[in-house]
Amino acid sequence: MVHGQGGVKFQNWARTYGSSPELYFQPTSVEEIKEILDLARQRSKRVKVVGGGHSPSDIACTDDFMVQMGKMNKILKVDEEKRQVMVEAGILLSDLNVELSKYRLALPNLGAVSEVAAAGVIGTGTHNTGIKHGILPTQVVALTLLTASGEILECSESVNAKIFQAARLHLGCLGVVLTLTFQCVPEFYLLETTFPSTLQEVLDNLDTHLQRSEYFRFLWFPHSENVSVIYQDHTNKPPSSSANWFWDYAAGYYLLEFLLWISTFLPGLVCWINRFFFWLLFTGKVEHVNLSYKVFNYECRFRQHVQDWAIPIEKTKEALLALKAVLENNPKVVAHYPVEVRFARGDDILLSPCFQRDSCYMNIIMYRPYGKDVPRLDYWLAYENVMKKAGGRPHWAKAHTCARKDFEKMYPGFQKFCTIREELDPTGMFLNTYLEKVFY
Length: 440
Known about the structure:
About 30% of the residues lie in helices and about 25% in strands. The protein contains 14 helices and 21 strands.
């Protein structure tokens, strides 16, 4: 008999959202998960499955039953010929990266953070950058799903294909993902080159940058023209780094947090802080070579609020200049650095922000120095307005103000997803407050 723990308080990584589930479970087998679902049915409780808890929204929160998948974290099969790996849903990508390296394999793309569970990564549509690469769910070639009724479905392009099209970005509302099979590539090294530029230069030459580097992204420093361009590309060079602990951590972390805390009393300092840190840390050319996953992953610094929307790639220049104009015309609205701009290939996953279009992701941030909240509402609403005008779709893991009426306009396949969800979970066992806003 599986036992749930009472009195557990759940908080996401950024400590921006939390909840107190009635019972907290850490199953070790499929049979235990089935028992949890049976108990939930008997007691008319909802079930929320969580992984690493990294989503900066309330998508993982519940006051009913919480199922933390961290003990179901094994690699089940490695097919070296097909370069595919089957894993349990709770495995952290940080562990998977290391294990894949033993087989001289790697995932072709990764997000900034790997302390996240495999099923959670696809469930919210985690992405990185590279116009030849899709969001991380596009790397999944098969999965198994335990539905509310207790049925286990095998899903792939050839089996339960319609469900597979929905389940690769499942929002945790179709059932419990048990296993995933990822398509891998031979292990590779990346050369990361960072160099300064200006917003105008990057926007005027966007196509050139996209063609020049496989994994191109850039950081814009609001209240200025300053941009840091980041190229990441395959290389045969040996591991090396020109990074410096003192500047990256003593200045880039501790000094930044202290100055941002002071700026909560003097908001006008933010413009100066953004320019100062660009001058301090981003005016030189920096090169770094390492295994792919060690380059894809980077320090997210301290706790933060974030928003991240995907817009049609052809709207990149228009949207960024509109956001810049909003800040220039409203001096009291301050924005922390950076605005991170990344790119992804279009796909056919029903609720993918990149559904049927190549996309630009534009991520904004407001740090919480020493855990202190900073005023952000005006910035948030102005940004959302710019994104909506550009035909944007919000990242599912991030906080946003959208509701069903918005998603019906944004996603051609939204109704199709809703139909599949209602067939798999007719009583709404896997819903929570966040998902009710999405579907009702």
